[in-house]
Amino acid sequence: MAAVPAVLLPLVSHSQIKLEKPPTATNEPVYKYEVFAGWGYTSINQVSNSNSGLQGVSASVTRDFGKYFGVTAEGGHYAWTVTRSNPDKVSVDHFLVGPVLHAPLYGPTSIFIHGLLGTVHTGDISISPNYSFAGGIGLGMDYALNQRWGLRLYGDDIGSSFSVTPYTTGDSPHRRFNAHAGFGVTYKF
To answer: Has this prediction a pTM greater than 0.85?
Structure first.
Protein backbone atom coordinates (compact mmCIF):
# COMPACT_ATOMS: atom_id res chain seq x y z
CA MET A 1 0.00 0.00 0.00
CA ALA A 2 2.79 2.43 0.81
CA ALA A 3 4.54 1.76 -2.47
CA VAL A 4 1.60 3.04 -4.60
CA PRO A 5 1.69 6.68 -3.23
CA ALA A 6 5.48 6.68 -3.32
CA VAL A 7 5.44 5.83 -7.02
CA LEU A 8 2.59 8.20 -7.96
CA LEU A 9 3.68 11.23 -5.84
CA PRO A 10 6.56 12.28 -8.15
CA LEU A 11 4.18 12.19 -11.14
CA VAL A 12 1.63 14.38 -9.38
CA SER A 13 4.21 16.96 -8.25
CA HIS A 14 5.86 17.02 -11.68
CA SER A 15 2.57 17.77 -13.39
CA GLN A 16 2.13 20.91 -11.25
CA ILE A 17 5.33 22.66 -12.41
CA LYS A 18 4.62 25.83 -14.34
CA LEU A 19 6.58 26.01 -17.55
CA GLU A 20 8.58 29.18 -18.14
CA LYS A 21 7.47 31.52 -20.88
CA PRO A 22 9.87 31.95 -23.74
CA PRO A 23 11.40 35.46 -23.82
CA THR A 24 9.45 37.89 -25.91
CA ALA A 25 11.17 38.95 -29.06
CA THR A 26 11.64 42.68 -29.47
CA ASN A 27 12.51 44.57 -32.60
CA GLU A 28 14.19 47.40 -30.70
CA PRO A 29 17.98 47.49 -30.98
CA VAL A 30 20.04 47.37 -27.81
CA TYR A 31 22.65 50.14 -27.64
CA LYS A 32 25.66 49.69 -25.36
CA TYR A 33 27.34 53.10 -25.72
CA GLU A 34 26.19 56.69 -25.46
CA VAL A 35 28.16 59.85 -26.20
CA PHE A 36 27.29 63.35 -25.05
CA ALA A 37 28.64 66.68 -26.28
CA GLY A 38 27.51 70.17 -25.42
CA TRP A 39 27.88 73.40 -23.51
CA GLY A 40 29.10 73.31 -19.91
CA TYR A 41 29.46 75.63 -16.93
CA THR A 42 31.62 75.47 -13.81
CA SER A 43 32.15 77.88 -10.95
CA ILE A 44 35.77 78.63 -9.97
CA ASN A 45 35.76 78.90 -6.18
CA GLN A 46 39.42 77.84 -5.98
CA VAL A 47 40.54 81.14 -7.57
CA SER A 48 40.72 84.18 -5.27
CA ASN A 49 38.49 87.14 -6.15
CA SER A 50 36.61 85.20 -8.82
CA ASN A 51 33.10 86.56 -9.03
CA SER A 52 31.93 84.60 -12.03
CA GLY A 53 32.10 81.09 -13.41
CA LEU A 54 33.42 79.72 -16.66
CA GLN A 55 31.67 78.25 -19.65
CA GLY A 56 33.05 75.84 -22.19
CA VAL A 57 32.61 72.41 -23.74
CA SER A 58 31.63 69.23 -21.94
CA ALA A 59 31.68 65.68 -23.28
CA SER A 60 31.16 62.15 -21.95
CA VAL A 61 31.06 58.51 -23.01
CA THR A 62 28.88 56.00 -21.19
CA ARG A 63 29.04 52.21 -21.43
CA ASP A 64 25.75 50.64 -20.40
CA PHE A 65 25.70 47.27 -18.63
CA GLY A 66 21.99 46.58 -18.76
CA LYS A 67 18.90 48.73 -18.67
CA TYR A 68 19.67 50.74 -15.53
CA PHE A 69 23.43 50.73 -14.87
CA GLY A 70 26.46 52.09 -16.72
CA VAL A 71 29.93 53.58 -16.30
CA THR A 72 30.63 57.06 -17.60
CA ALA A 73 33.83 58.97 -18.40
CA GLU A 74 33.40 62.73 -18.51
CA GLY A 75 35.66 65.59 -19.52
CA GLY A 76 35.34 69.29 -19.99
CA HIS A 77 37.32 72.40 -20.84
CA TYR A 78 36.03 75.69 -19.45
CA ALA A 79 37.90 78.85 -20.46
CA TRP A 80 35.39 81.59 -21.26
CA THR A 81 34.08 83.78 -18.44
CA VAL A 82 30.37 84.25 -17.98
CA THR A 83 30.86 87.92 -17.01
CA ARG A 84 33.87 90.26 -17.07
CA SER A 85 34.08 90.46 -13.25
CA ASN A 86 36.96 87.95 -12.90
CA PRO A 87 40.33 89.65 -12.33
CA ASP A 88 42.35 86.95 -14.15
CA LYS A 89 41.93 84.80 -17.23
CA VAL A 90 41.56 81.25 -15.89
CA SER A 91 40.75 77.85 -17.38
CA VAL A 92 39.47 74.69 -15.71
CA ASP A 93 39.64 71.13 -17.04
CA HIS A 94 37.65 68.19 -15.62
CA PHE A 95 38.52 64.50 -16.05
CA LEU A 96 36.05 62.31 -14.13
CA VAL A 97 34.86 58.67 -14.18
CA GLY A 98 32.14 56.86 -12.27
CA PRO A 99 28.96 54.79 -12.17
CA VAL A 100 25.63 56.03 -13.48
CA LEU A 101 22.12 54.80 -12.68
CA HIS A 102 19.33 55.71 -15.07
CA ALA A 103 15.61 55.01 -15.19
CA PRO A 104 12.68 55.95 -17.42
CA LEU A 105 10.52 58.74 -16.03
CA TYR A 106 7.63 59.38 -18.40
CA GLY A 107 7.38 58.71 -22.13
CA PRO A 108 10.64 59.77 -23.83
CA THR A 109 11.98 61.38 -20.63
CA SER A 110 14.41 59.58 -18.34
CA ILE A 111 16.49 60.61 -15.33
CA PHE A 112 19.93 59.62 -14.13
CA ILE A 113 22.23 60.01 -11.16
CA HIS A 114 26.00 59.66 -11.33
CA GLY A 115 28.90 59.67 -8.92
CA LEU A 116 32.21 60.83 -10.37
CA LEU A 117 35.86 60.72 -9.25
CA GLY A 118 38.90 62.07 -11.02
CA THR A 119 40.93 65.25 -11.25
CA VAL A 120 40.43 68.96 -11.87
CA HIS A 121 43.11 71.17 -13.40
CA THR A 122 43.16 74.94 -12.91
CA GLY A 123 45.24 76.60 -15.61
CA ASP A 124 46.48 80.01 -16.74
CA ILE A 125 47.01 81.19 -13.15
CA SER A 126 49.87 80.86 -10.68
CA ILE A 127 48.39 78.32 -8.27
CA SER A 128 50.40 75.35 -7.09
CA PRO A 129 49.48 72.55 -7.12
CA ASN A 130 47.26 73.22 -10.12
CA TYR A 131 45.82 69.65 -10.19
CA SER A 132 43.51 68.33 -7.50
CA PHE A 133 41.70 65.08 -6.75
CA ALA A 134 38.01 65.73 -7.34
CA GLY A 135 34.70 64.01 -6.93
CA GLY A 136 31.03 64.71 -6.79
CA ILE A 137 27.49 63.57 -7.38
CA GLY A 138 24.97 64.84 -9.88
CA LEU A 139 21.52 64.47 -11.40
CA GLY A 140 20.32 64.83 -14.94
CA MET A 141 17.48 64.37 -17.38
CA ASP A 142 17.46 62.92 -20.89
CA TYR A 143 14.81 63.48 -23.55
CA ALA A 144 14.82 60.98 -26.44
CA LEU A 145 14.22 62.59 -29.83
CA ASN A 146 14.31 59.14 -31.51
CA GLN A 147 16.03 55.80 -30.85
CA ARG A 148 19.56 57.21 -31.24
CA TRP A 149 19.45 60.99 -30.65
CA GLY A 150 18.44 62.85 -27.53
CA LEU A 151 18.86 66.00 -25.42
CA ARG A 152 20.51 66.10 -21.99
CA LEU A 153 20.43 68.58 -19.11
CA TYR A 154 22.42 67.87 -15.94
CA GLY A 155 23.97 69.47 -12.91
CA ASP A 156 26.33 68.36 -10.19
CA ASP A 157 28.58 69.61 -7.44
CA ILE A 158 32.28 68.78 -7.88
CA GLY A 159 34.47 68.97 -4.80
CA SER A 160 38.22 69.57 -5.01
CA SER A 161 41.01 70.71 -2.71
CA PHE A 162 43.18 73.56 -3.95
CA SER A 163 45.55 75.63 -1.84
CA VAL A 164 44.37 79.05 -0.64
CA THR A 165 47.88 80.52 -0.81
CA PRO A 166 49.69 80.15 -4.16
CA TYR A 167 52.81 77.94 -4.26
CA THR A 168 51.91 75.94 -1.16
CA THR A 169 53.16 72.41 -1.60
CA GLY A 170 51.65 69.26 -0.17
CA ASP A 171 48.08 68.32 0.57
CA SER A 172 45.60 71.14 0.94
CA PRO A 173 42.84 70.91 3.56
CA HIS A 174 40.93 73.70 1.77
CA ARG A 175 37.98 72.07 0.06
CA ARG A 176 36.12 73.85 -2.71
CA PHE A 177 32.81 72.80 -4.21
CA ASN A 178 32.11 74.04 -7.71
CA ALA A 179 28.68 73.98 -9.27
CA HIS A 180 28.88 72.21 -12.61
CA ALA A 181 26.19 71.97 -15.30
CA GLY A 182 25.77 71.03 -18.93
CA PHE A 183 23.32 70.94 -21.81
CA GLY A 184 23.74 69.18 -25.14
CA VAL A 185 22.97 66.25 -27.40
CA THR A 186 23.37 62.51 -26.89
CA TYR A 187 23.91 59.78 -29.45
CA LYS A 188 23.52 56.04 -28.77
CA PHE A 189 25.31 53.30 -30.69
So the answer is: no
